[in-house]
Amino acid sequence: MTSYLFFILTIGGVYALLAQSLNLIWGGAGMVNLGLAGFFAVGAYASALVTKGAGLPIPLGLVAALIVGAVSGLIVTLSTVRLRDDYLAIVTLGFAETVRLIALNETWLTRGSDGISGIPGPWRAELGPLFHPLYCVFVFALVLLVYLLVRRLDNAPYGRALKAIREDQELASFAGKPVLRFKIEAFALSAAIAALAGAIYGHYTSYIAPDLFQPLITIYIFLAVTAGGLGRPLGPVLGAYLVIMFLEGTRFIAEAIPGLAAVQVAAVREMLIGLALILVLRLRPQGLLPEQRRAIPAN
Amino acid sequence: MSVILQLILNGVMTGALLAVPAIGFSAMFAVLRYPNFAIASYATVGAFAAWVVNTKSGFGVGPSIAVAFCVAALVGALCERAAMTPLRPSGPLAAAIASIALGVVLENVVRFAFGNDLKAYDLPILRDMRFGDIRIGPQQAQNAAIAVGIMVAVFAFLRLTRVGRAMRAVADNPDLARLKGIVPARVELAAVLVGCGLCGAGGVLIGLDTSIDPLTGFRVLLAVFAAAVLGGLGSVPGAVVGAFALGVAEELSLLAVAPTYRAAVGFLVILIMLTFRPRGIMGDRFA
Fold first, then answer.
1. A72, A281, A286: which to substitute to probe chain B, counting the most B Cβ within 10 Å?
2. Of A72, A141, B169, B225, which one's alpha carbon is 20 to 30 angstroms from that of B157?
3. Which chain A residues have a beta carbon less than 8 Å from that of B267?
4. For A94-119, what is each residue's pLDDT tens digit?
5. For residues B266 and B20, what is the distance between their CA atoms, to the nearest angstrom?
6. Dihedral (C-alpha) B115, B118, B123, B128: value to the nearest 10 degrees?
């Protein structure tokens, strides 16, 4: 039971990192990333290949994930940054599918649908049963670190410029802000955080496969960010833990309905998640912790 | 040489099938002004509706597609009204995200009712027609012909009927259309009925070739987007041109990469097109 709890909390932390990643661009610059699962996968594979494949230490794996994530973010944004934001939505969706296809087909690199197993975790063997709680603490610390960084960014002139771009891109550009550069940088940073989350996930579960990076993960994170509060660094973290609790809760709800086949239980869970996102968008789009709008300073 | 000819022919036939949902998507985008990601599930809903009447009630291909069109149109109109209309004032991004969530819900309604197993339509098995080295499956040829028939009907609808002309007016300039006394809500309803119906019909056409399951629509989503972007997002003739071009490109890619990468061709096409000619081949003129 306690290991289940630590598992849930750790995965919640991974989702919190993904939610920070989405909030940074969506709450920050008004860009959406429907391929979050793809960047998550890219990071997981990058770190797994560097550590399990090339035998290098885990910190180098994390660095590799950050770099590969940021570069993928650049590729995706460069073609769409001048266009309306819904083009980016389409391109990111395509990116995630393409990543899944590559992971499935380039078996020499990724071992295809079998996935990569035996990804090292930090001192997994030495720690034994202590691995789960300690890794959970490590993920907490990382979530806190990313939270502090994002909050720093949010309060800095950089964050204000991003929000100006979100509200009115043309106005921001008239005010002399290099809008394109801001958007590309923010997206690359956000993609790097998502990739880092993937690496953290892989080193925890020790196994990754293309099927683990379903588009549904992207839906979870959108639910986390909208429910928690878009545009405020603490909101997505809260939202991520709420979503993981909701996900586990739906497991019990669906199993409590008598006479359902396993596939129907899974279908009910996914339906509830989709419905939850629609309802949150409709009933409380500002989330539990609404964005704080600073008053215009009086002169 | 005949290999390339065969691939181009196959590409044209796949392109015809792809054009049907691509028109639906582009028409809805032009009128409602948000990318509707739920089209994947409308295609799946249509495919299953047709499967039910085809295998349980013995409907032929034509009537099954008509049923799929109607069911998908009805489901689409209901969902649009219940889930999307209240959200649209929050902007295209909120609507796009809600449409993904809606797609997940619909996909799982289908999964709940029919399970994950592959289902096949009841079709007579026919021998391929041969012209020299070129082979054509009669079923594929029939599907492509039906798709072309649907396209002709859509263009006639947009050109000749009052509602169709009103749709074009709203797509080109919503403010001017309102000034002329066109009721936006009615035109939007018409766009949703036609758009979702076309997606449903497209789901059947794509499923007739192989088999269907709850992810049938999702698998072609990227190709539909690619076709629409290639032709020019929001343009109906663009969706047709884009679909044929993508179909041929997908088939020709088989010369260079493994068939499993077909879906990635769509992504590549989107990236290249948006980088060099974001307005698409036909621009954004609706019809």
1. A281
2. B225
3. 91, 94-95, 97-98
4. 899 899 989 988 888 888 888 888 88
5. 16
6. 170
| Residues 91-150 of chain B whose Cβ lies under 8 A from any Cβ of chain A | 92-94, 96-98, 100-105, 107-109, 111-112, 115-116
> Which ipTM score applies to this complex?
0.88
* Residues 164 through 223 of chain B touching chain A, CB cutoff 8 Å: 218, 221-222
**What integer pLDDT is reported at residue A298 of this predicted model?**
63
Say yes or no to pLDDT of A299 above 70: no
Alpha-carbon separation of residue A80 from A32, A131, A184, A219 (angstroms): 12, 43, 10, 22
In the beta sheet, which residues pair with residue B119? Answer: B212
Q: What is the 3-state secondary structure (H, E, C) of chain B?
A: CHHHHHHHHHHHHHHHHHHHHHHHHHHHHHHHCCCCCCHHHHHHHHHHHHHHHHHCCCCCHHHHHHHHHHHHHHHHHHHHHHHHHHHHHHCHHHHHHHHHHHHHHHHHHHHHHHCCCCECCCCCCCCCEEECCEEECHHHHHHHHHHHHHHHHHHHHHHHCHHHHHHHHHHHCHHHHHHCCCCHHHHHHHHHHHHHHHHHHHHHHHHHHCCECCCHHHHHHHHHHHHHHHHCCCCHHHHHHHHHHHHHHHHHHCCCCCHHHHHHHHHHHHHHHHHHCCCCCCCCCCC
What's the pLDDT at A72? 93
Residue A202 in this model has a pLDDT that exceeds 80:
yes
Q: Tokens for A60, please give them.
A: 């180098």
**Cross-chain Cβ contact B97/A32 below 8 Å:** yes
B265 touching A (Cβ < 8 Å): no
The model's pTM is: 0.89
Q: Is A150 in contact with A24 (CB distance < 8 Å)?
A: yes
Nearest CB partner across the interface for B101, out of A75, A261, A274: A274
Identity of the residue in B92, B94, B261 whose CB atom sits nearest the CB atom of A285: B94
pLDDT, chain A, mean: 87
The residue among A59, A23, A21 whose CA lies nearest residue A203 is: A59
Distance CA A169, CA A279 (A): 29
